[in-house]
Design brief:
The structure is a single chain. The protein is mainly alpha-helical. Helices cover 58% and strands 0% of the residues. It has helices spanning 2-21, 33-49, 53-66, 70-79, 82-86, 89-111, 117-120, 139-154, 160-178, 195-201, 206-209, 219-223, 247-260. The N and C termini lie far apart (65 Å).
Length: 273
C-alpha cells in the first residue's frame, strides 16, 4: 500500500507539472473537483474490492475444471512453472505485456459494442480527461477486462516476480496515457501508446472513440484498422452522453441502461388517435 501511495504521489506531481508545460488541452482545468473526487473514490473502491480478484478467479476456474486436483494446480501456477518461468525476467515481462495487450485490445472493442457499452461508458464519462481517469472503471468491467485477463495469463506459469515488476509499470502507464499532455511519441507512435493516442479514444464523437483500443502497443490498432492519429491535430471534447455525473449513479447506470432495452415501448400497439 505504501508503495502504491508513493506511485500515486509521483504521478500527481509529475503530470501536474508536465501538463503546465505541454498540455494537450490548455483550456482544461488542472483540477476538476467533482471528477477528481469520483476518481479518488474509484481508486479507493479498487483497493477495497479488487485485491486478489484475479487469484480468486483462477481458484474458481481450477476448482470447476479439476475438482480435487485444483489446490495442487493452483500452488504450481502461482509459484511459476515450465517454460515460462524458465525465461529471463525481462522476457517474461515483455511476453505478459504483449499477451495482455492482445487480449485487452479485443475485449476493449467488445466493450465498445452496443450490448456492453453502458459498462464501459463509465470510463468515458469524464469531460476533463486527466491521469486519474484511469481509475474510473466499473467493477463489472474490471472483473472481465483486468482480473479475468490476468487470471487467464497467469495459468501459463510466469514467475510471480513478473507481476511484481509489472504492477508499478501498469499503474504508471494507465495514468500516463490519460494525462493532459500533447505528446505523440513522433516516429515511435506505433510502438508505445502516447497521451494523444489515447485521448483520441476518449473523444465524445462515437466515430473517433471507436479507435485506438490498445492499452500499450498501438501497432495492434494499426494491424486491425483502428489506428487514429491525424497529423497536426489534437483531440478535444470528451465525455459519454447519458452517464450520471456521480459515482453512485454510475454504479447503477449500466444496469438501468441495459434493462431499458428490454422494456416494452409504451407507444407500440397503442390505438391510433
Amino acid at each position: 500500500m505504501a508503495f502504491t501511495i508513493l506511485c500515486l504521489a509521483t504521478c500527481f506531481l509529475a503530470f501536474s507539472f508536465l501538463a503546465r508545460l505541454a498540455p494537450c488541452n490548455p483550456e482544461q482545468p488542472r483540477f476538476d473537483a467533482a471528477e477528481l473526487r469520483d476518481d479518488a473514490l474509484y481508486w479507493a473502491l479498487s483497493v477495497i474490492l479488487y485485491g486478489g480478484v484475479s487469484t480468486w478467479l483462477l481458484h474458481m476456474g481450477l476448482s470447476a475444471a479439476l475438482g480435487a486436483g485444483a489446490p495442487h494446480a493452483e500452488r504450481t501456477i502461482l509459484a511459476g512453472y515450465g517454460w515460462a518461468a524458465a525465461l529471463p525476467l525481462a522476457a517474461q515481462c515483455l511476453i505478459v505485456l504483449v499477451l495482455t495487450d492482445i487480449a485487452q485490445y479485443w475485449l476493449h472493442r467488445f466493450f465498445h459494442g452496443h450490448a456492453f457499452w453502458p459498462l464501459h461508458a463509465i470510463h468515458h464519462s469524464p469531460v476533463n480527461v486527466d491521469w486519474t481517469t484511469t481509475f474510473r472503471v466499473h467493477p463489472v468491467q474490471f472483473l472481465v477486462y483486468s482480473a479475468g485477463v490476468a487470471a487467464l495469463i497467469r495459468t501459463l506459469g510466469f514467475s510471480p516476480m513478473t507481476y511484481v515488476v509489472l504492477a508499478p509499470f501498469n499503474l504508471f502507464m494507465g495514468a500516463y496515457v490519460h494525462a493532459n499532455l500533447n505528446w505523440t511519441h513522433g516516429p515511435l507512435k506505433y510502438v508505445v501508446a502516447s497521451p494523444v493516442f489515447h485521448r483520441w479514444h476518449h473523444s465524445s464523437d462515437p466515430a473517433v472513440r471507436d479507435k485506438n483500443f490498445a492499452p500499450t502497443f498501438p501497432v495492434l490498432d494499426l494491424m486491425f484498422g483502428t489506428f487514429h492519429m491525424p497529423e497536426g491535430e489534437l483531440p478535444a471534447g470528451y465525455g459519454a452522453e447519458g452517464v450520471p455525473n456521480n459515482i453512485l449513479g454510475q454504479m447503477a447506470y449500466p444496469f438501468h441502461a441495459i434493462a431499458a432495452r428490454f422494456r416494452p415501448d409504451p407507444g407500440v400497439g397503442a390505438p391510433a388517435a
